[in-house]
Specification:
Blueprint: H1 5-18, H2 21-28, H3 32-46, E1 51-52, E2 59-60, H4 62-90, E3 96-101, H5 106-119, E4 125-130, H6 135-141, E5 146-150, E6 158-167, E7 169-173, H7 187-191, E8 195-198, E9 217-220, H8 223-231, E10 237-239, H9 245-250, E11 253-255, E12 266-274, H10 281-295
Helix pairs in contact: 1-2, 1-3, 1-4, 2-3, 5-10
Family: Belongs to the LysR transcriptional regulatory family.
Protein name: DNA-binding transcriptional LysR family regulator
InterPro entries: LysR_HTH_N (IPR000847), LysR_subst-bd (IPR005119), WH-like_DNA-bd_sf (IPR036388), WH_DNA-bd_sf (IPR036390)
């Protein structure tokens, strides 16, 4: 194989993307003659022309279009490989695996990820939906690097960084009996109505976990099912201020207030990880960006 093949392909791809040999030379910081020579070498290697040079702007030939598609893939793969090797050399993670609690505010997470993507465009991020039901065991297993969650009852073998406090609210459909009651609503009224609850694992016993207030509980491991059950009037559930924002704005769902503070728990949002497996440089950068995004929240 031609040892300069990847470089020549990169030059060819740049010529097509820039629309001229001069533009490619400027972007690659090379002489125009060097760019022209690299493309000529690729054409010699292929045995047919890749570009039509009859106009001021070189255009792809029919076979050149096919080569361009393959060349673009190979050049991008080479870029990723180079970035991967540099990350290994620096001791950086080659991927960041994050468990995200189902009620973690995704708008702030995505804002932080946009900043991270701009700073580290070649980094690989993997997001996994989780909940407190199984979160700590997931962290202990090493299947994820850190978790974004509510920092309630953090185990002794975990450490955490708090971002901000949020208040949880009970909500119900506007047609639900609780929504038609005068507020503040007594806790006994909640105890007599069905509660909708997120459970991520069918092996988890809901009666031993979380804030369950009565015997009539329906559970789901899918947030959209929970959204539909609540808006459909099947029961009430706990949520943060963002999850039912559209339904509240339209009047389909109503936020409920109780005189009992157990119905309005305050929880710290943050990142958590195993004491013996702290996030690496890239994971730490995501945590920093999240701290900034949530710290700037209203």
């Amino acid at each position: 194989m031609n040892p300069n093949l990847i470089d020549q392909l990169r030059t060819f791809v740049t010529v097509v993307e820039e629309g001229s040999f001069t533009g490619a030379a400027r972007r690659l910081n090379r002489a125009v003659s060097s760019v022209s020579y690299a493309v000529a070498q690729i054409e010699r290697h292929c045995g047919f022309p890749l570009l039509e040079r009859v106009t001021r702007q070189p255009e792809l030939t029919r076979r050149g279009r096919a080569v361009f598609a393959e060349a673009s893939f190979l050049v991008e793969s080479a870029r990723r490989l180079t970035a991967h090797m540099k990350a290994l050399e620096k001791g950086e993670e080659t991927r960041i695996r994050i468990a995200v609690d189902v009620l973690f505010p995704l708008d702030h997470l995505h804002a932080a990820l946009q900043r991270f993507d701009a700073a580290r465009p070649r980094a690989r991020v993997q997001l996994f939906t989780s909940s407190l039901n199984t979160l700590w065991e997931t962290l202990r297993s090493g299947d994820v690097d850190f978790a974004l969650t509510f920092l309630a009852n953090v185990p002794a073998d975990m450490t955490a960084r708090s971002f901000r406090n949020v208040t949880m609210w009970p909500v119900a459909a506007a047609t639900h009996p609780l929504a038609r009651m005068a507020q503040p609503i007594p806790i006994e009224a909640f105890q007599s109505e069905r509660q909708i609850y997120f459970i991520g694992d069918p092996g988890v016993d809901v009666e031993r976990l979380g804030r369950v207030f009565g015997p009539d509980v329906w559970t789901s491991n899918d947030l959209e099912h929970i959204r539909m059950l609540v808006t459909g009037g099947f029961g009430w559930c706990f949520t943060n201020e963002a999850f039912f924002a559209r339904e509240e704005a339209s009047g389909a769902v109503k936020r409920l207030r109780s005189a009992d503070n157990r119905l309005h728990p305050v929880r710290a949002l943050g990142a958590a990880w195993s004491i013996d497996r702290a996030p690496g440089p890239l994971g730490g950068q995501i945590v920093d960006f999240l701290a900034g995004a949530l710290g700037e929240a209203d």
